[in-house]
Amino acid sequence: MKHRYFFIVMVVLIMTACTTLNVFEKSIPFPSHTWSSTDTPSFHFNITDTNAFYNLYVVFRHEDGYRYKNIWLHITVHDPDSTYSFNREFTLANNMGWLGTALDDIVDHRVAFNALPAKLKKGQYTFTLQQLMREDPLQHVLNAGIRIEKVTP
Hints:
Elements: H1 2-16, E1 19-29, E2 34-35, E3 42-47, E4 53-63, E5 70-78, E6 83-91, E7 93-94, E8 97-98, E9 101-103, E10 106-112, E11 118-119, E12 123-131, E13 138-139, E14 141-152
Antiparallel strand pairs: 1-14, 2-13, 3-12, 4-10, 4-11, 4-14, 5-6, 5-12, 7-8, 9-10
């Protein structure tokens, strides 16, 4: 009987904990499974809720044959008031293996590029990705994209 109450309490706590709702996710496929540095996929979305906080992710899908534990990206952001760019390294593996979700020989990553949830301004946003790896074109890459999640208490 005690286990049953414990289970019910845990379910209620989990269901009332902070959750995230998907606002936007899009990725661009690379049909030849190679990503050239001249391929710069762009992603457009609108923010209407300025009271919310958002988590921002890079979406990256590759084959198991991908040779690196990381990827370097140049990210350009056009927000309603400005444009800015930054370079960022995303860790994809450690000594134990891939950090993403693997299904057969395909590995899917959703890696945060903001440390804390961010407030976003109302309006149109455009994110552009460019790979900065030494290997060009980058082999064994299936998709690249972004994901924006609204964080709700």
